[in-house]
Design a protein that fits this description.
mainly beta, Neuraminidase, 2 domains, four-stranded antiparallel sheet, 3 helices, 5% helix, 47% strand
């Protein structure tokens, strides 16, 4: 009898996957609740394409009416946070997680001489290496490629250039991204499907430049740098970059001239710029993500006084931007030594936004659950204020990873403090997995007594891939049985794997339905 193995694969959108593999009685299970998705209409046009100004959100906007005065109260259904110190000498950290869910943190010391360092969890502690020493200013940014190599972009004040470093063959290889001007301020980096870096930064008006926002990309041999078209732009207010499924860059920044949030996408060799929000003094410290339809989602700050303002969120639904206030911050310290990346945005497995944000007194989280915003406090400041820079990442298990810093000094030449790391685990996951009994719980995704879950990118996943044969992105003999289903959204580090899977599920082997069954014969069948 020709029994076939059935794989269920979500085609045509960025998806994540769980593998459930038959195993011995000693296996355990990790229970992750399925997020409740928000409606995600397909894009009808690129944001800014034929659009001018800010579209008025309709009452049916998926994130609620525009300018709602306050999100829902803090809930007891959020995350349990474990906060620890990475290094008691550093500032302005940025974080990314690798395919195994391991956090990598880049941070610096603004001093003469200062440093850029990289920290990664190894066992019970942090393995810290020095990337470079010199005169540097933050913020910087980090991404991790699908092979686990960290990439760090930053401003090099000694050379008045953007600098980029990648960890290769056991050492840091540093590039100068040379371009006329005093480049590389407010730097952010994204990796494309080939693992090549793309950055966005500011060549600031404070040094007499008219270039403003600059985009740089590396083709494997050399860097190219181009102006996005912002006109003169100061540093201090942040940028954001994300690459879509076609590796097209999307960028955001604050326009200090009209105090608005700007968005640009490059397509066909040219940039299209549009205004996301211009109501009031809006758009500082933006963070950008793209949903499964390549639609942009942006968190940012609205200034209401010298110390107060709102964290806001804008979402493009394919035809218009919907805008919403999430929460108020009351202790913002702006300026060169103050706020930089005040908000950081990720999307959960259902495409729902999760936003971390901070002022000098508190680090908080806002999470959209499909019906409303859930707010929670991650940390409150002690004797030292917070640095008002947060960096949030989500692993494929649904866990959150967050970095921020205490500040001990805000004086020339820069900021000094202690780098912190926070790990967030959903309380629902903990309640479904009581300590000492990982098989207990009633969650519908729980494995049976004789199964375990393998997560995309984990070591066990890679071992499964090596045994799964040519029908899987791996080699060698088949597994006894495999059941693959849609569950969670792939992080950027896994886009290449997504393309491998979609390449395997090529036309002729599946139907055109969004949820398709793809049959692959097992060994001896």
């Amino acid at each position: 009898m020709n029994v076939k193995r059935i794989w269920t694969l979500g085609i045509g959108s960025v998806v994540g996957i769980f593998l459930f593999v038959a195993c011995g009685a000693s296996a355990t299970s990790t229970l992750v609740p399925t997020p409740v998705p928000t409606p995600a209409p397909a894009a009808t046009a690129a944001p800014g394409s034929g659009q001018t100004g800010v579209a008025t959100p309709s009452p049916a906007a998926s994130l609620g009416d525009a300018e709602s005065t306050q999100a829902s109260a803090e809930t007891a259904n959020g995350y349990v946070w474990q906060v620890s110190t990475v290094d008691d000498n550093g500032a302005k950290p940025s974080l990314a997680v690798d395919a195994d869910g391991v956090p990598h943190i880049a941070y610096l010391l603004e001093d003469m001489p200062g440093f850029v360092k990289h920290a990664v969890i190894q066992g019970d502690g942090w393995d810290i290496s020095t990337v470079a020493t010199g005169y540097f200013y933050g913020p910087l940014d980090i991404e991790v490629d699908r092979d686990g190599a960290p990439h760090i972009s930053r401003h090099n004040h000694d050379e008045e250039n953007e600098a980029y470093a990648v960890f290769t063959d056991g050492e840091w290889v540093v590039h100068d991204v040379d371009h006329p001007g005093h480049d590389g301020w407010d730097n952010n980096v994204a990796l494309d499907s080939q693992g090549l870096p793309h950055t966005i930064s500011i060549d600031p008006s404070q040094f007499g430049s008219d270039s403003g926002v600059e985009y740089a990309s590396f083709d494997g041999e050399s860097w190219s740098v181009e102006e996005v078209g912002s006109g003169p732009t100061p540093y201090e207010f942040g940028t954001g970059i994300a690459l879509d499924s076609q590796d097209r860059p999307h960028v955001v920044w604050f326009d200090s001239g009209d105090k608005s949030l700007k968005y640009a996408v490059k397509e066909g060799g040219s940039w299209t710029i549009s205004t996301v929000d211009s109501e009031g003094d809006v758009g500082r410290y933006p963070s950008l993500a793209l949903d499964g339809q390549d639609n942009p989602v942006v968190s940012y700050f609205e200034t209401t006084s010298s110390k107060t303002g709102y964290i806001k969120l804008a979402r493009w639904d394919g035809g218009k931007w919907s805008l919403q206030r999430l929460d108020q911050l009351e202790n913002v310290f702006p300026g060169f030594l103050g706020a930089t990346k005040t908000s950081s945005l990720v999307l959960d497995g259902g495409g729902n936004p999760v936003v971390a944000y901070s002022d000098e007194k508190v680090v908080k989280l806002a999470r959209w659950d499909g019906a409303g915003w859930n707010l929670e406090t991650v940390a409150t400041a002690g004797d030292s204020p917070f640095g008002q820079q947060v960096s949030l990442a989500r692993d494929i298990r649904g866990g959150l990873h967050l970095t921020f810093a205490d500040v001990s000094s805000k004086s020339s030449p820069g900021v000094k403090g202690a780098v912190k790391y926070a790990r967030g685990t959903l309380k629902a996951v903990l309640s479904a997995n009581p300590p000492g009994n990982s098989r207990s719980g009633t969650h519908p995704d729980a494995c049976s007594r004789r199964c375990t879950k393998l997560f995309i990118g984990s070591p066990a996943f890679r071992r499964a891939g090596r045994r799964a044969g040519p029908g899987f992105p791996g080699k060698a003999e088949q597994l006894p049985s495999l059941n693959l289903r849609v569950e969670d959204r792939l992080q950027p580090a896994h886009r290449g794997l997504r393309r491998d899977l979609l390449g395997w599920a090529r036309p002729g082997r599946h139907s055109a339905h969004r949820q398709s069954q793809i049959h692959y014969p097992g060994p001896g069948q």
